[in-house]
Amino acid sequence: MTDTTSHTLLTPPQTPQVLTPVDLSGMFGTVLDQVDISEGTRKTYRYGVKDFLSWNLEGRLDPFVLRDYKNHLRERTDLTTGTKNLYLSGVRTVLKTLFIHEVLPSDATKDLKGFKMTRTHKSGPISDDEVTKVFRLVREMRDRRLLLIYTLLYFQGLRQKECLTIRVEDLDLGNKTLSILGKGRDDRELVDLHPETVRVLQWYLTETGLKSGYLLYSQKNKSGHMTTNHLGHLIRTVHKRCGLETKGHSWRKVFVSKLIDSGMDLLTVSQFSRHKSIEMLKVYYDRIDHKKKLPKYYEVFGSTDSPHKVGNPE
Predict the structure, then answer these.
(1) For residue 39, how many other CB atoms are within 10 A of its CB?
(2) I need a labelling partner for 175 at 20 to 30 A (CA). Which of 32, 51, 168, 257 fits?
(3) Do 266 and 281 touch, CB atoms closer than 8 A?
(4) Quick check: 314 pLDDT over 60?
(5) Nearest-angstrom CA–CA distance, 270 and 289
């Protein structure tokens, strides 16, 4: 974002404390187009801004508008805490940028924090039996794309978006490596491939005849990749047929949990999972450690034959 262009676009002669919804939408859209964030983050922030604009029909830009919007989000039961924070972050980014460029006279984001989140996963990873069930179904379906997708999710712990952006040119099957642009990264990372992943990739390239371009290409436009929504639909369909209520991200939980459960130290696990911080892996470690201690907890209070058994409450 260049100062001269952005300042010209963002600074009207005198910005009132109240704008029409149309004017406000145009201003917020301009900021999001120019602010220095990744395209994925920009897309996510647009959802938050859209929600904010739907709530802010009065077109307020006063110092308390973000505080009031946060209170509005706090009362909503249709959004998770994580989604509320994403919405809040999107609006905060826009308002902060407007203040920096002197479009707004005061900083509405000052001292306003996000919603507190517990550092626990709401659901555990997929079980070994469920993993077996999914791979059995995928093989029965004889769907090349699904087998590749689940191989990348399970054996490599890739994020769904990372799977979508892999090109043939990113593969070095001879050295069992993959060059990938990870989450929040500006440069590519080299990922070691599991032998089973290499085998499936070799089979997939032979079956499809792909020589270049995206592995998971769009059926409508082979120069582009499959959409995130379509990938999510494929995963949900398989999970539903297998009786799973988990989401696609659960496969990454499986990957990390199995590495930790094998006794691998967190630093080494982070090198395979590509988490930026070991602290993020503590959530997995604590859950696994807690699960291992459950038998001791049960033992402390005795079995169902214990003399202290409560019995029928009626």
Answers:
(1) 7
(2) 257
(3) yes
(4) no
(5) 17
